[in-house]
Amino acid sequence: MSQTVLSEAVAAGVVQITMNRPDRKNALDRATYTGLIEAIAAAEADASVRAMLLTGASGCFTSGNDIKDFAAAAAAGEGPRIAIDFLNAISTAKKPIVAAVEGFAVGIGTTMLLHCDLAFAGRSATFRLPFTALGLSPEGGSSYLLPLVAGSKRAAELLMLADPFDAATATDAGLVNAVVEEGTALETALARAKALAALPPESLALTKMLLKRGAAAAVAETIATEARHFGERLRSPEAIAAFAAFLKK
Fold it and tell me: Which of 142, 164, 169, 182 has the highest CB neighbour number within 10 Å of its CB?
């Protein structure tokens, strides 16, 4: 497994998956996506694992896609395929996933929370869905799931204006369960993950399946449709200009 993703047992039945590129604010490059996919698959296949705890190293969740790596992938004609593979993995995981968010949760760092079963954010955490500002379009099933949990007006505000927003807004929008004191998101999330791991696993898996089954087909279709548009937008003059401006900073 890539060293940009760490996976370790942290309690009975609980595996912690950590995005580990602190020098890049845990930005997700292709190696990191591969590591996340492998970590989720390993946890799903291990009968001793009852819950996954997802977090980022050094007090930051993730600043989203590594723009330089993403631009290189687009130039090579790879598009967002590996990111879509990760989104499919996290959205279809059978075991519960609990997220602990501190620092930045940008782009896919925010949209992946829509697929976590529980999420907790430190008080100073900052979220952003910057797709329109980068000349792109929504991903991760967010154009379907965010209106469901946040309402259409709030979803339009967050996705269309692309402004940063705080943990309280993320809670109101249904992206996280609760805001906790800064620096305690991991502690809170671990307590919830341990509580989930202590429950009868078949009952827990069935409950998760039933909670997700009504929207499962629509989520899969939305992820695929968004991916097609996202790939097209990556090659658009707007996105190319936005990426170039970002890389000059």
Answer: 142
